[in-house]
Amino acid sequence: MSDYCDTAPGHPFHGPYHDNEYGFPIHDESVLFERLVLEINQAGLSWLTVLKKRAAFRSAFRDFNVDSVAAFNDRDRQRLLDDAGIIRNRLKIDAVIHNAQVIRHLRESHGGFQAWLDVHHPLTHAEWVKLFKRTFRFTGPEIVKEFLMSAGYLPGAHRDDCPVQARILATTPPWAQTDALRPE
């Protein structure tokens, strides 16, 4: 993602995301869920497309409230498929609803999405992918990598010489709390 550190700053959409969100630890369930939803919807598209549609996603998915999305029914699915403001892909929409239901179950089994991530950290990227594939839908290697980097569980969101990297390190992201990640 080193090119992102060169091209994102100053861009109206990429800049704020790069400077204030990408790679910073996330503790709020709805923000973790939002990031997962956005990464799933980015598959096959540009990140800029997703960032431009972010407000529409937020509205369509009820501010990424896990309980609200987990309760979506067929009428909600059709509403989402008819919403030109978001990415209208049935597999992605179904995955988002399913994944919200999974996150609700993670509250019971682990105390929440973040606690589930924390209990499994650190894993290699390959191990994370296997875990996500067993747990969630529409979570291939690239989606898992970007989600975990964006939420602070894997290093690599920024170059070491990027000014944002120092700010991220000051927050002690999960990837920086271990001596070293286990090798792939």
TrEMBL record:
Residues annotated for Zn(2+) binding in this entry: 5, 18, 158, 162
Q: Which PANTHER family match?
A: DNA-3-METHYLADENINE GLYCOSYLASE 1, DNA-3-METHYLADENINE GLYCOSYLASE I
Taxonomic classification, please?
Bacteria, Pseudomonadati, Pseudomonadota, Gammaproteobacteria, Oceanospirillales
Please verify whether the record's keywords include Membrane.
Answer: no
Q: Which GO terms describe its molecular function?
A: DNA-3-methyladenine glycosylase activity; metal ion binding
GO process terms (BP): base-excision repair
Query: Which UniProt key words apply to this protein?
Result: Metal-binding, Zinc
Give any Pfam family that matches. Adenine_glyco
Full protein name: DNA-3-methyladenine glycosylase I
Instruction: Output the InterPro entries linked to this UniProt entry.
Output: Adenine_glyco, DNA-3mA_glycosylase, DNA_glycosylase
SUPFAM superfamilies associated with the record: DNA-glycosylase
Record bears the keyword Metal-binding: yes
